[in-house]
């Protein structure tokens, strides 16, 4: 990925997309794939994970990623507004179903995967705990300290989060089973939607793909790998492998 720094990116037109550099942050990866899938060109902008990112903050009012800035519009940061921005810039190919019932199902599923209190939000709490456990060096601990303050980590919260993660993973697997019984390989209806894209990218937080497909730093790979106690149904992994193979580019680029 050829990252551009904030100072240069803010003088450009079109879509500028701040992404967490050097790690496969799932919110950033999902945003990147949404624009990629729709062939919407963007300038990747540097966000440094676990840092203050003062330049990004001065430009957009946000210190984390993704942040999508389109022309002179207000920055989009939430997954919902990023999907809707992409749908507006390039309605085809669509990632959001036309029927309201299917739309409600799809956005509900992504909420469980990516919103506050959802699978990745909860998973991140134990991941921050793992990062703390890797070193006593104050310099190394600076990153998890920033993330802990940003995303509400405590030891107790990380322990509580496991049950929530398990519940959501079971719900997602049940959903795929129900869909399969009706003849569909996808989360909603008969075709690829943003729900499939979000699960595929966020599944890295439970079962990171092999090094050749997801060349992430080794200490982070350890933290991303779900503990044996978390129920990662093989169906969920078969689904994500199929989604990457059919609809998304590999290897991961960050
Ligand atoms: N704003 C996003 C969530 C963004 C988020 O959680 N970003 C994380 C993961 S990519 C991040 O930037 N982490 C690194 C950091 O905080 O520096 C949403 O609500 O959909």
Quickly describe the structure:
This protein is mainly alpha-helical. The protein has helices spanning 6-9, 26-37, 54-60, 79-89, 100-114, 119-133, 138-151, 155-181, 194-202, 218-224, 234-247; strands at residues 15-20, 43-47, 67-70.
- Intertermini distance: 6 Å
Mean pLDDT: 97
Report the oligomer: single chain
Helix count, DSSP H or I runs of 4 or more residues: 11
Your description of this structure?
This protein has 2 domains: 6-89, Glutaredoxin; 100-247, Glutathione S-transferase Yfyf (Class Pi), Chain A, domain 2 (Up-down Bundle). Helix 2 (26-37) links the parallel strand 1 (15-20) and strand 2. The protein has helices at residues 6-9, 26-37, 54-60, 79-89, 100-114, 119-133, 138-151, 155-181, 194-202, 218-224, 234-247; strands at residues 15-20, 43-47, 67-70. Helix 2 (26-37) packs parallel to helix 4 (79-89) and helix 6 (119-133) packs antiparallel against helix 7 (138-151). The protein contains 11 helices and 3 strands. The model has no long low-confidence stretch (mean pLDDT 97). Helices cover 53% and strands 6% of the residues. Bound molecules: glutathione. Glutathione (GSH) binds next to helix 2 and helix 7.
């Amino acid at each position: 990925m050829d990252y551009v720094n904030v100072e240069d990116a803010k003088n450009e037109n079109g879509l500028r997309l701040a992404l967490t550099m050097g790690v496969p942050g799932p919110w950033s990866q999902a945003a990147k794939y949404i624009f990629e899938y729709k062939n919407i060109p963007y300038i990747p902008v540097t966000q440094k994970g676990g840092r203050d990112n003062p330049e990004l903050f001065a430009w957009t009012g946000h210190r984390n990623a993704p942040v999508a800035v389109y022309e002179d519009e207000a920055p989009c940061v939430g997954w919902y507004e990023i999907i809707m921005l992409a749908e507006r810039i390039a309605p085809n190919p669509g990632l959001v179903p036309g029927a309201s019932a299917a739309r409600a199902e799809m956005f509900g599923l992504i909420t469980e995967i990516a919103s506050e209190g959802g699978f990745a939000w909860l998973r991140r709490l134990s991941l921050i705990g793992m990062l703390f456990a890797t070193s006593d060096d104050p310099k190394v601990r600076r990153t998890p300290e920033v993330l802990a303050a940003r995303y509400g980590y405590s030891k107790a919260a990380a322990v509580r989060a496991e049950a929530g993660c398990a519940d959501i993973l079971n719900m997602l697997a049940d959903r795929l089973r129900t869909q399969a019984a009706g003849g569909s390989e996808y989360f909603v209806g008969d075709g690829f939607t943003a729900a499939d894209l979000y699960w595929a990218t966020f599944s890295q937080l439970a079962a990171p793909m092999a090094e050749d497909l997801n060349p992430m730093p080794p200490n982070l790979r350890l933290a991303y790998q779900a503990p044996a106690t978390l129920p990662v149904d093989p169906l969920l992994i078969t689904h994500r492998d199929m989604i990457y193979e059919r609809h998304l580019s590999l290897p991961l680029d960050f």
